[in-house]
């Protein structure tokens, strides 16, 4: 890549599953300990059936892609050594009535406060961090990212099977996730003060316990000098995660440059964005979406094509254009995780086939 490309890093959340049944396996501490011995620092999630990987900070998408493959390969081995299977899936295809909550003080407090929301969690997403010059930019650039959040969701949808049946949605995770009071599309913010006043109100009301519980799909990171985009299901493959990271980075860069020219993001009404989210979660990449700016129904593939056209100059500048366009074309042919799951389930009606397909996709090209 040429100079000037923002840095990027990725967090991927994974389900730990029983190798025989595919049911969630509460073994995150054991897998994290094994990963630590292998040189990988795994994060524990709210439920003990999940782990999260974090890449380093990268300027080159090719280097990020290589690390994503290495992380999945290593952690899958650690999971296998501890009687679990690593699955890149956004909701478990077969689940118990509730999930055990990880035994840390913060997670136990969340469980006591939010009840069944915590015990029915088990949702796995992908978070892309893009380097940003300051907190104000991180907040204002979110207004430029908001129109494309449904497209990112449709692209990565990977949760069409839950409790052994078709959900009727490409991303059932997104539907479940938005039950949290601080989750979903971010509000339109005009300033840092605007953002901080809303966060303070939410803390005072008890709808969040701390700033880390700001679960909006775009937020300034509390830990890093980045803007964090959190809308996506965990993609089925590392190639899809790398494409997502490249598209998100280019969108952030384009938005930052627009801010430098004094151009604010389009003020899309919350109701319009929620409708676009529902379309993306419902049909994924294979159906119709809602153009948030123009307010008309458009196939998601056309929305994705428009995004690629808009970002074309930035992707070329960063050296990512050929990789992204080739992988998006391949994804259109083979299908994302949601389509893979449905194809597997419909072949024989056996959820075991879905688990097998998810297993193959998780380590594809790894």
Please, could you describe this protein's structure?
The strands form four sheets. Strands 1, 2, 3, 4, 5, 10 and 11 form a seven-stranded antiparallel β-sheet that branches. A two-stranded antiparallel ribbon has the order 6-7. The chain has a two-stranded parallel ribbon with strand order 8-9. The protein is globular, with a radius of gyration of 19 Å. It starts with 7 loop residues before the first strand and ends with a helix. Strand 6 (161-162) and strand 7 (165-166) form a beta hairpin. The protein contains 14 helices and 13 strands. By secondary structure, the chain is of the alpha+beta class.
Residue-averaged pLDDT: 92
| Uncertain residue ranges | none
What is the radius of gyration? 19 Å
The number of helical segments is 14
Number of strands: 13
Work out the strand percent.
5-15%
Largest sheet: 7 strands, antiparallel
